[in-house]
Q: What sequence folds into this?
DNA sequence: AGAATAGTGTCTTTAAGACAATATGGC
DNA sequence: GCCATATTGTCTTAAAGACACTATTCT
């Protein structure tokens, strides 16, 4: 059949003229608690890969989702009850082997959420979900290729931590610089120089003083807030690993 | 129906249980010629968006493509006859508006190819294709959301040029440092300091001398080759824009 | 006063920018 | 020798690391 106008073409067009692979969105939802980077996993209640732990994810809702980001936000909301944190697309993986049902594609997103705000959404929660420290999660024999996906997300997070202000999105509204530095250190897996860290954050204008203080135990600490619109601020240099320490291994 | 084993589940599983969006791979194929960054566009011979210029792209071949990267390589080969350049996934865009046929998703890749090696593949070439300088391409009213896609690819390329050795993948086997610097300058849109550029490349061990020289006209220049395995080397600092120049605007 | 945590002073180091000076080969 | 292009010397600058020192509050 030969069409002579776009209208005519679209009138005759049927979805499913082309065989289309399965498409899903998967989420690596990160938070920090107990001094460790944690990831939220769900235990699958259905085949395939029933009973295995997996990254939360699912299909696009063609009727309700405006775009992929919406799908990711919806998944996040379903699993955590949280609505507005930082979401970033990591990578899209597609091949014939990753799912026993055949050719399938997933777009992987990661989310960074403030642990204090958070509570697992129990409503209509068929599947178990739980937080795992990253290194435990990676030893869990996850469903599908989710170990690889989780590694991709962790790598992206730690690499961006070296040159952006992204970890600030894990913080509550107000926070002390020591708290922020601790978050950086947890993600990076090594310590940072206090003076250098504070200078970097303040001189770049990434954080600003609120005037308020937080008394925890000893000397009260100044409370700061994030001073920029988005979390994609890039520093002109990478953070280094401490110059003496022979790296962990 | 309730299944009790993965085998049983898979035996009854049918594709198309879920409505799945259209999925394509689109390519921003870059090269450098005549002192400008160029992109390869094709003129669509079919509906929708017939006759408009577009990024080359198409559906996954579920029977032959191993994974998405293979699909991208295949598209590149079909359009250019070239087989092994640098390919990188930029982003995956999916929403309801971008294609008149409904919800659709595209994974955008970019390729960097050595213009000297290249010739447009005329074999079985139904669609016209042509190279355009980026700024011309962006004024062309491209099909679908391809202007947005092209912008994403260009942004990724220039941002990675600021802190990686990626542009080296645009070079032939052997090249002079002046040639490489020129490529950087074209992509970035501003000049770079000669000494600083050479120091950066050589001290990081990104390039190595071949011992050979190239006599163009005046003093012969040393020929270098790329010294690393992959093109993802990251420098510890960003290139700056020249400190005096008040930027272009 | 002593402990603990917050915050600063300041010297060193790394790698980039600026710019002038030198080197080489064609004509 | 003159010109153009390649290549190097070396001073300055930006921003990070190291590390010691001061400040504030609690007990």
A:
């Amino acid at each position: 059949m030969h069409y002579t106008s776009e209208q005519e073409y679209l009138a005759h067009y049927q979805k499913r003229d082309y065989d289309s692979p399965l498409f899903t969105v998967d989420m690596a939802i990160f938070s920090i608690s107990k001094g460790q980077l944690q990831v939220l996993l769900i235990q699958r209640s259905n085949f395939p890969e029933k009973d295995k732990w997996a990254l939360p994810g699912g299909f696009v809702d063609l009727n309700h989702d405006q775009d992929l980001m919406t799908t990711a936000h919806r998944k996040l909301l379903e699993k955590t009850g949280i609505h507005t944190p930082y979401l970033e697309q990591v990578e899209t993986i597609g091949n014939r082997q990753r799912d026993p049902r055949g050719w399938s594609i997933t777009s992987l997103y990661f989310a960074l959420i403030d642990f204090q705000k958070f509570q697992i959404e129990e409503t209509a929660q068929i599947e178990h979900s739980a937080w795992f420290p990253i290194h435990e999660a990676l030893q869990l024999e996850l469903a599908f290729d989710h170990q690889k996906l989780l590694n991709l997300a962790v790598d992206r997070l730690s690499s961006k931590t070296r040159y952006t202000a992204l970890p600030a999105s894990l913080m509550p509204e107000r926070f002390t610089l020591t708290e922020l530095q601790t978050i950086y250190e947890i993600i990076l897996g090594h310590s940072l120089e206090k003076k250098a860290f504070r200078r970097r954050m303040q001189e770049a204008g990434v954080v600003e003083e609120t005037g308020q203080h937080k008394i925890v135990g000893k000397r009260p600490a100044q409370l700061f807030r994030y001073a920029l619109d988005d979390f994609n601020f890039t520093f002109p240099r990478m953070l280094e690993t401490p110059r003496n320490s022979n790296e962990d291994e």
Chain B is about 25% helix and 25% strand.
